[in-house]
Task: structure prediction
Amino acid sequence: MSKSKLKKLVLEGFSDYFGANALEELPQCSVEATSLLDVPQASVLVTFETHPFRGQEYKPVAGLTRLLGKTQNPDLPLIPVIYLMPRHAEDTLEHENIHACQYLHDVSFPLTSDQKNLFLSMNLEHAARYLQETQGRDAVTDFIINATCYKTWIEMEANYITRKPKNIQAWMMKVYLSSVPIVTFNSVQIVMEWTNDDMEKARVGFSGFCNIMENEVKWVADLVRKSGAGSLHKLILETHKEYDMNLFEWEMAFGDPWNF
Result:
């Protein structure tokens, strides 16, 4: 594939994911093939020179990882693409490389295979509306719960590997700002008109997921013990309370949780 065709593919993939209304005309960027897990030219790195989000130059979204290929062209293999924003942190590329590996891994608990394909091909809002139209309310609820749990896990793992948390509360806030699980459920309740039964299913599902992570992943259990929170679920709820206390500041900085 020529470099011009590759650039067109990865920029169209970026625009398709977020939707035209969220973006300015895509700014200048560099596009280069790069290594992943020491495999040469295994992924694509896109570095934006100016921030692509309309009126959100301050928005601290440092990077985004997507797998492109099958949905754009059935003849293409899956291509991990990492998009870096201006002023990204030194560890952002390492963080996004971890996400690329997570997405390529066969196991993506608790997402089903179909849910994972949807998670990788659409942002959360577009995926939920697609499921609402094609499979109904229960499919939307199950997908949102599993996608939110999965997103929480991959952010925990990526931040653990890159940051080796010394201050566990600060580490969990970094995880929370990227995964926003409770905020996501509350937003979906309003936008998708979830019932109390839907919210209860989300609460039970997310709590159960947290218990599994804590019981089956040693470093998660160790961090929870050191935090003094008593459980991973309680640690996340405490972090959400801190988020809630600074709600206006966080919303101004991070915006709508549906798109990330």
About this structure: The chain has two domains: 1-105, 107-260.
